[in-house]
Amino acid sequence: MRHAPFLVLLALTFGLAGCAQQEGEGEAGATTSSPGGRPTLAAMADRLPGTVAGFTRRDTTWHEQTRAGLGVAMDYDGPARSAVATVSVYDRGQPDVPNEIDSAALQAEFTAAVSEAVAMAGTRTSQRIAERDRTDVEVPGQAPMRCATLHGTYGRQEVQTLVCLGPAAGRYLKILVTAPTRQVRPVSPMPFVVGIAQAARG
């Protein structure tokens, strides 16, 4: 629990902490599927569970209302607030994001997601972060999630951020998980990533 205030600040730095959904927010005329046959954003948001792998869902932010293509983001807290995470579902205006992780669209979006996380950290003088490695996280029976591990510092605190991207029902699914590197009870973000991917894809 002693990490909670630090994680709140770190979440704000990475843009992980969204605003609470207000009454009446969400995708207008929410139905289960859009004209293109894929689920609506509201339906996609409803797919994401209240709890998964020890993480608890918190706030929801409808970016689509202010800028088309940016979709919806949901914040999660790790066990005992040992980590913070944000799950984003969006399409950048593309009618149907391909389901292949090696497609040009997904590779470009993954590169942009990693660059955005590094650049966001760079806006704070007390934070330094850099990419360390990349890996594909297997999701049983589905397309994998491509992930990059970022390591750095926030003040004197060592931190790690996992940036993952993959397809989900014709949209991009982006997952960011940030936690202090040194913890008494380390939390692996991988079960959370896999659980979210399975839920988002239905």
Automatic annotation (TrEMBL):
Signal peptide limits: 1-22
Keywords, in A-Z order: Signal
UniProt-recorded name of the protein: Lipoprotein
